[in-house]
Amino acid sequence: MTDLIWVLSQLIDKDGTIKIPGIYDIVAPLTVEEEELYKKIDFNMTDYQNDIEAHGLLKGTKEEVLMSRWRYPSLSIHGIEGAFASPGAKTVIPCKVVGKFSLRLVPNMTPEAVDKLVIDYLNQLWVKRGSPNHFKPSAHHGGMPWVGDFKDDNFRAGVRATKKVYGVEPDYTREGGSIPITLTFQELTGQSVMLLPIGAGDDMPHSQNEKINRYNYIQGIKLQASYLLELAE
């Protein structure tokens, strides 16, 4: 258990930076055009900090926070299989434990390249640790990242529809959620795919208390209808 905890502690710095060598070298470079998009996005750092109930944020500017959430890879530790997790004291030492973590891929990363970098680094850590215990890193599954072309006709129709329904210029956003079917649709059809959100920032998708506000639901219906009309024209 102590070996595993040590290995997991070597994956990421306290500021969220991934410590795996070479991982940022395979990320698509930040362009001036993209950087300007982040400056225009309506995002309040104080509101965000209060919403996630944190004492502070890992990044100091709005642009850095958004890029960390959207355009750079992130690593999350999810749990330890075989460890004691129930309430109360426990003194039994597990004979085998499995640490589980994921790494979010972003353009231009591929699962194959990331798997090699991660496993090579884990093996190097184990040599450095010098433990007599057995260690076997493995990758379970991976998916290619996707990002849309916000300049094409599909996105422009979405922009016009948003202006018509909400009366505001929409923000171009990314998200770290896993929707692998998006890329599949785009590759199979050869057409542009756009994700057109209708929910609020506090809808907590996939959680126990997932919701959608009545206002957003009704406006979302209008947005979908307006989008189809704009796309047809």
TrEMBL record:
Peptidase M20 dimerisation domain mapped to chain residues: 53-126
Signal peptide annotation: none
Pfam families listed in its UniProt record: M20_dimer (PF07687)
PANTHER family on file: BETA-ALA-HIS DIPEPTIDASE, CARNOSINE DIPEPTIDASE 2, ISOFORM A
Annotated GO biological process: proteolysis
Identification of the protein by name: Peptidase M20 dimerisation domain-containing protein
Source organism (scientific name): Oesophagostomum dentatum (Nodular worm)
MF (Gene Ontology): metal ion binding; peptidase activity
InterPro entries: Cyt/Met_Dipeptidase, Peptidase_M20_dimer
